[in-house]
Amino acid sequence: QVQLVESGGGLVQPGGSLKLSCTASGFPLLWYIMSWYRQAPGKERELVGSITSNGGSTNYADSVKGRFTISRDNAKNTVYLEMNRLKPEDTAKYYCNAHNNFATYRGQGTQVTVSS
């Protein structure tokens, strides 16, 4: 069964950190560009950032640049989103997305809430 499963979300205080994981099953992540998206209630889905298939290049939304880092371990079929200096406006459901010229897969998401 082809699926992406995110984990690592939770409640964190402003200024804190979380590291999300996204693990694939049923297909090899190494063939895919991996992206993280987020969506807050009442807002449009936002691209947080992406990483190339070999991990050689990343890009980020301006809103998270310098605070978030995307990495991947193709041997573990997993991609990560490390989030530092979290702000209340980072509160959202975070999704990972696998994309290449042949297919796109998306996980069910994990909730991140930043609140004191």
SSE arrangement:
Layout (H helix, E strand, L loop, with lengths): L2 E5 L2 E3 L5 E8 L7 E7 L6 E6 L6 E3 L7 E6 L4 E6 L8 E8 L4 E3 L3 E5 L2
Parallel strand pairs: 2-11
Antiparallel strand pairs: 1-3, 3-8, 4-5, 4-9, 5-6, 7-8, 9-10, 9-11
Distance between the termini: 39 Å
Average the pLDDT over all residues and give the rounded result.
96
Main sheet makeup: 7 strands, mixed
Radius of gyration: 13 Å
The shape is: globular
Low-confidence stretches: none
Proportion in β-strands: over 45%
SS summary, helix count? 0
The helix fraction, in percent, is under 10%
**Secondary-structure element order, N to C:** EEEEEEEEEEE
- Counting helices, strands and paired strands, the structural category is mainly beta
What's the count of strands?
11
How does this structure look, described?
Helix content is 0%, strand content 52%. It has strands spanning 3-7, 10-12, 18-25, 33-39, 46-51, 58-60, 68-73, 78-83, 92-99, 104-106, 110-114. It has 116 residues and is mainly β. It is built from no helices and eleven strands. A hairpin with a 6-residue loop joins strand 4 (33-39) and strand 5 (46-51). It is globular. Strands 2, 4, 5, 6, 9, 10 and 11 form a seven-stranded mixed beta sheet that branches. It has a four-stranded antiparallel beta sheet with strand order 1-3-8-7, with no helix packed on it.
Give a short overview:
With 116 residues, this protein is an all-beta fold. Helix content is 0%, strand content 52%.
